[in-house]
Design brief:
Length: 251
Amino acid sequence: MFKICNSQKKVKINAFWMGKTEVTYDEYQLFFEEERDPEPKPAKTGPDAITRPSPPYIDFTLGMGKVGGFPANSMQQYSAIMYCKWLYAKTGIFYRIPTEIEWEYACKAGQKNPIEPLDEYAWYAKNSQEKYHHVGLKKPNAFGLYDMLGNVSEWVLDHYDAEGYKKSESPVFTDKYADAIVRGGNFQDEKILVSPTARFAADPVWNRRDPQIPKSIWWNADAPFVGFRIIRPNPQPSTQEIRTFFEKYLN
């Protein structure tokens, strides 16, 4: 049992493995390059379809770094989930982004006190030089996970609900991607926002430069501070449960 956020609510968490680092640009590029469509067409439909990312029209990294271990960034939550679907198609193993509860449990790693000294564990406004850095350079937490705080904020499966922690269902789901949540803070944030309990909903400002109408479901043109990491549930869900999951979050 685990107390979520700063509430007294206790929740049960099923076993899972989590990536030691945020998904890197090198890893994400394998998906992007294989599935990229130079002339985007209407999205495929159906539970087994993997739609193709639209090509980025600017350098979303803003020159901060791509290959060589930098975190993948600037993607929408939809893109992160589609990456997981691509991994499933490639490996036969189901991966997904974590729920808020799973993410916070992994971030706290059994600790009740604030993570200090923060400079040793996270890239944030004080020490980042206004850019993200290679993953895994700071100290890991007690679970051996790197950059759970700072560097880039991480997508979780939930969508924003101010009362979400008072509800029994996890994750909280709406049909609007604008409500998706990021956790952990990032290289731009002040210390108070780089916390295991801080949570933020996606902001339309993250994609204000996107010239498309409607806006891209793949990219956030103005959010180089947003990335993700993945988990592998244990035990694995059934094939039907996996199909239902992707239908729910991608259709």
